[in-house]
Task: structure prediction
Amino acid sequence: LYYLDLSENNISGTLPSDIGAPMLGTLILFNNSISGTIPCSLLQLQQLKFLDLSENLLNGTLPNCLNGSEASNIQLLNLNSNNLSGTFPLFLQRSKQLKFLDLAYNKFSGSIPSWIGQISSDLSFLRLRSNMFSGGIPIQITRMKRLQYLDLACNNFTGNIQLSLGNLEAMTHT
Result:
């Protein structure tokens, strides 16, 4: 199994600890009633590139499942509109192929780590809207050369607006 789309159903329960599909590349389960936490085994699937678990009832923190130099191959991660909490997910630090990241409408808190600018040179979509992030907006965000969409609204950010936001030149392209 490489592609599984069960979105917009009435699926409930928790995500299995072993999905039983080691070659799974795309998992789309948005707009269901899936609850519980996201298991490490899902985030450790080597072929997984697209993961959309948005609009469910997921809760808890995201585990830091990657060992040593192990990297995540995820390119699209959509977890918006759940009940996820904790700090900015550490496993994203090793997601060097990430292009789309949506963590909006959750309960993530703490500051955005300075390594955010090193997640992926290809990151073009970053939405952290409606969480509980705090502190300043890291200048490293302004060094993301391919970023076309940035939404940090409805958090608890403080400090100055980074003047270098003007460096986000990819936002001028359609």
Q: What stands out?
A: The first strand starts at residue 3 and ends at 5. Helices lie at 40-43.
